[in-house]
Sequence to fold (195 residues):
Amino acid sequence: MIAFISGVAVDRGIDYVVVDNHGIGYQVFCGNPEMVTLNESIIFHTYQHVREDAIILYGFVDKRELDIFRQLITIKGVGPKTGITILSRFSGEDIIRAIDQEDMAFLKKLPGVGPKMASQMMLDLKGKFVASDTPSTKHVAMPLVDEALDALADLGFKKAELNNIKQELSLLNLDSVDEMIKEGLKLLHSRKRGL
Fold:
């Protein structure tokens, strides 16, 4: 299974982004592709859906959204297309809160979700996630940095290279792992070029 794709976003459509990874263009279906900046580096955490006639990649810039997506598609009647549509219109955190608070009115607003499916969501998913608060204080910075460095190590960067940028990355006061990864890539590439 393909866990993530990293590369340069070279094209996008209504529901997908094409990521150039070493000369191969991967079509990654995602919510809100218009938010992706073309000709910039991107990492998608992916769900690989295999059908008889196709292998489809669904991508998320936030790993937590991928985890929520994986849970959503365990619900009978929610396939990957419905799951990605739901997460393109509503945040995963709002969906988790609605499930945990049994907010039927909110759940029925989700695309393709009626009363029966909303009830099934609450039955199957209540308590499966802890809704997270938006990180806003510096005490969360180091875990974010460490997670970003782990992702960069998975991309093949050496430990010594990563240790060289760790301090600088921790001073940037960024709020998400994805932002940390992007900035980490910029720092690593600028050092390789000797800038």
